[in-house]
Design goal:
Blueprint: E1 2-4, H1 10-13, H2 16-29, E2 35-45, E3 53-59, E4 64-75, E5 88-92, E6 103-104, E7 107-111, E8 123-124, E9 128-131, E10 137-143, E11 154-165
Antiparallel strand pairs: 1-2, 2-11, 3-10, 4-9, 4-11, 5-6, 7-8, 7-10
Bound molecules: calcium ion (CA).
Length: 166
């Protein structure tokens, strides 16, 4: 499902929390907004078909995408949670996870490849982050878990994705 930014509602878009998350994502991306297109809104499941949710967003080279958590909760481990897109910082993921070192249960992304494998190196996003400009292809998002561990996952979170042309 894709919603235009204005469907998120003015109250949400003007909230301190959203503006602060957007500011942090911009800071992390090291860019200023020169030109943007409206954000699109996406539901990201902790238990997608395969391991990765297809956002339907194609990222051209040279364009930075900001990804900001907008709501929902998910669980990638039956023993704790649910959490937001930051996951649980008490548990850095071991090497068997899709993004070792990032918190278990945090939002992660890759560009290109399929819902199973391939594409760019995996990068951590959490509650706010960005997609590096050098990657080109379809954006995939999911929860930081190990491939054999997706069967016990529940819930979904939502994110706003904004294109930035620096
Ligand atoms: Ca799991």
């Amino acid at each position: 499902m894709i919603l235009l930014e204005n469907e998120l509602g003015d109250e949400f878009l003007n909230s301190i929390e959203y503006q602060e998350a957007l500011r942090k994502a911009l800071e992390e991306a090291g860019t200023e907004i020169v030109k943007t297109v409206p954000s699109t809104h996406h539901e990201i499941s902790a238990r997608p078909i395969g391991y990765w949710n297809n956002t339907g967003v194609y990222k051209p080279k040279g364009i930075t995408l900001l990804v900001v958590y907008t709501g929902g909760k998910w669980r990638s481990n039956p023993h704790w949670g649910p959490t937001d897109a930051a996951g649980d910082s008490r548990y850095p993921a071991p090497s068997s996870y899709l993004k070792p070192g990032a918190p278990e249960g945090c939002l992660i992304g890759k560009v290109g490849g399929s819902n199973i494998s391939g594409g760019s190196p995996v990068f951590a996003i959490g509650n706010h982050g960005y997609v590096p400009p050098e990657y080109e292809g379809l954006l995939w998002l999911t929860v930081n878990d190990e491939e054999r561990g997706f069967g016990d996952n529940h819930g979904q979170i939502s994110v706003a994705i904004r294109h930035i042309r620096a």
